[in-house]
Amino acid sequence: MKKQNFNSDSPVISVIMSVYNCSKTLSKSIDSILAQTFKNWELIICDDCSKDETAKIAKAYAERYPNIKFITNKQNKGLAYSLNHCLEYAKGEYIARQDGDDYSLPHRLETQLSFLKDHTRYAIVGSAAILFDENGIWGERRPPEIPTKNDLIKGCTFIHPSVMIRAEAMRIVGGYTVSERTRRGQDYDLWFKLYSLGYRGYNITEPLIMYHEGLDDYKRKSFRARIMEMKTRYIGYRALHVPLWKYVYAFKPLIVGIMPQKFLRSYHHAKYKLQKN
């Protein structure tokens, strides 16, 4: 393997990716990073004890490309732990996220880096996303352009695999919270931690990623996970000093949880299709 060399005239972006049983999509996801117009990046892939060919694929890329690093967990630990594991190896001034079943558009890293360099008041930059499932592209999601505390109270304001964050801010908040509560929703917890310390974010209205969202995504979110999200909201509201009457939004996950999954999928398809037009 060749020694990794970074261009000293340009900041380094560390792309962190936790993977688990995504052998069918991983190569295309990694290829989308290799195709970036901005070249001064490193990709750190952590396999969370996959049972398919995911680890084999990731390892092969790491052996071929010096700016890709492959690490593994000794046992299945979940996304928050795996991303923190990646952060232990990250050398970049900026941390970008991507999942093994999502794809970055070629100018994503260049666009987000340019934004953060020009807008120093922001620590987070996300983007809109093109939504697709097993049947192809079906919509587009556009989170709030300039998410406020009030937006965060109502729901998650960034698409996790679309974000780039200043590494210094990630260090100050201690990365992701690892707990049973954040087995899911670790990103929502992170936004609360960042915003509670005064950091702010922005969403580029142009889609910079292709984000996989299908029926299985709704099935994976159990009622227990929704209870954990309610706890995350409660902790986040306290950190943000939210007025007591706004705590009513903490019950939103439970209300959504009692709705049929197919109804939720139909609702989201209609919502984001309308948003695209």
TrEMBL record:
InterPro entries: Glyco_trans_2-like (IPR001173), Glycosyltransf_2 (IPR050834), Nucleotide-diphossugar_trans (IPR029044). The keyword Lyase does not apply. Gene3D superfamilies: Spore Coat Polysaccharide Biosynthesis Protein SpsA, Chain A (3.90.550.10). Pfam families: Glycos_transf_2. SUPFAM superfamilies: Nucleotide-diphospho-sugar transferases. Coiled coil: none annotated. It is an enzyme of class 2 (transferase). One of its GO terms (molecular function) is glycosyltransferase activity. Residues 14-150 form the Glycosyltransferase 2-like domain. The keyword Calcium does not apply. Its EC number is 2.4.-.-. Keywords: Glycosyltransferase, Transferase. Belongs to the glycosyltransferase 2 family. PANTHER family: GLYCOSYLTRANSFERASE (PTHR43685), GLYCOSYLTRANSFERASE EPSE-RELATED (PTHR43685:SF5). This is Glycosyltransferase.
